[in-house]
């Protein structure tokens, strides 16, 4: 488990260099006292592990740029891939002063070693108003265009990005879509129409991840109960971590058929594969049973397919739980 004494941690993502797992995460100082203030103070922290359980914090990866820049207020969620030239690319979300912190854009940072990152302060991918809602539409509190999930295009040609976005048509409470963009080289990006229907049953699909788990494709996202579509809320549905079974990784994705994997006490479920090839889910601890904010990241939880649904399963040993810590005790920042 990753719990920092000085900071809350929440959304996160991984990179694997073959020797160590790298955990990148949003963090903000506990000196803010009110966790609702954390979003406008967020930076991207970094920790490393050999077993997904014991984490050593290292230098932060990215902080907001000097103004004017697309990320001069805060740096938010992203993903990491390795380019064909061997460099690492982190695609991440930025919010800026010019947009009042309400306009979200996606930029990129580069690294040779996953430890030191260089950013440009320039937005790389922005929503296209032909398909996507903009702040001026007035249907949502902010302009959703964030949480990029980048992977090689299933066609074998280029790269694809999935984005938390909202359609510009339909019931405003139900416009959450899988936004998408395509690139031949991770440099130039072409925004494309959503890969899911404009009326999804969700106000937004946060922190998307597409993976093939034990031979079956699945799309993960998170949505709070307050951001479910009006009809879902009226039916008493609750928020949390959701999954969509996927036939074709190129889409489209039947988000309306999503099922819940975990309730809101956990949020931002991320799938990760250990060195033995087993799949696990980690999440951040969002709230306690009585609704108090937590702000720490769980140990790995085993997942599997049960009656055709991705499910957290029991009675699987947590990787590294019975072995020695992967780093010296003095460097551990995780509570076992």
UniProtKB/TrEMBL annotation:
<dbReference type="InterPro" id="IPR051214">
    <property type="entry name" value="GH32_Enzymes"/>
</dbReference>
<comment type="similarity">
    <text>Belongs to the glycosyl hydrolase 32 family.</text>
</comment>
<dbReference type="InterPro" id="IPR013148">
    <property type="entry name" value="Glyco_hydro_32_N"/>
</dbReference>
<dbReference type="InterPro" id="IPR023296">
    <property type="entry name" value="Glyco_hydro_beta-prop_sf"/>
</dbReference>
<keyword id="KW-0378">Hydrolase</keyword>
<protein>
    <recommendedName>
        <fullName>beta-fructofuranosidase</fullName>
        <ecNumber>3.2.1.26</ecNumber>
    </recommendedName>
</protein>
<feature type="domain" description="Glycosyl hydrolase family 32 N-terminal">
    <location>
        <begin position="19"/>
        <end position="227"/>
    </location>
</feature>
<keyword id="KW-0326">Glycosidase</keyword>
<dbReference type="Pfam" id="PF00251">
    <property type="entry name" value="Glyco_hydro_32N"/>
</dbReference>
<dbReference type="InterPro" id="IPR001362">
    <property type="entry name" value="Glyco_hydro_32"/>
</dbReference>
<dbReference type="GO" id="GO:0016787">
    <property type="term" value="F:hydrolase activity"/>
</dbReference>
């Amino acid at each position: 488990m990753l719990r920092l004494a000085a900071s809350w941690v929440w959304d996160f993502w991984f990179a694997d260099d073959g020797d160590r797992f790298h955990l990148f995460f949003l963090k903000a100082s506990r000196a803010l006292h009110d966790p609702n203030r954390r979003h406008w103070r967020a930076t991207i922290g970094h920790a490393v592990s050999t077993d997904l359980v014991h984490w050593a914090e290292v230098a932060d990866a990215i902080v907001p740029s000097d103004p004017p820049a697309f990320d001069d207020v805060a740096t938010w969620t992203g993903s990491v891939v390795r380019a064909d030239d061997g460099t690492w690319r982190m695609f991440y979300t930025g919010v800026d002063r010019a947009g009042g912190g309400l306009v979200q854009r996606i930029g990129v940072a580069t690294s040779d070693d996953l430890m030191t990152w260089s950013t440009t302060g320039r937005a790389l991918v922005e929503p296209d108003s032909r398909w996507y809602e903009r702040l001026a539409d007035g249907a949502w509190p902010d302009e959703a265009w964030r949480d990029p999930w980048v992977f090689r295009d299933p066609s074998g040609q280029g790269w694809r990005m999935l984005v938390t976005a909202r359609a510009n048509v339909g019931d405003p409470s139900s416009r959450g879509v899988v936004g998408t963009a395509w690139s031949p080289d991770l440099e130039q990006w072409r925004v494309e129409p959503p890969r899911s229907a404009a009326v999804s049953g969700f106000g937004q699909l946060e922190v998307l991840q597409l993976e093939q788990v034990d031979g079956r494709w699945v799309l993960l996202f998170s949505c709070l109960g307050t951001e479910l579509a009006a009809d879902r809320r009226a039916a008493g549905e609750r928020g949390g971590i959701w999954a969509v079974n996927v036939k074709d990784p190129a889409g489209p994705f039947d988000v309306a058929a999503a099922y819940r994997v975990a309730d809101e006490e956990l949020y931002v479920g991320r799938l990760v594969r250990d060195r033995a090839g087993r799949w696990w889910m980690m999440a951040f601890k969002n709230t306690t049973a009585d609704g108090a904010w937590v702000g720490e990241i769980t140990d790995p939880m085993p997942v599997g397919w049960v009656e055709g649904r991705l499910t957290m399963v029991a009675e699987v040993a947590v990787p590294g739980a019975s072995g020695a810590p992967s780093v010296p005790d003095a460097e551990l920042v995780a509570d076992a």
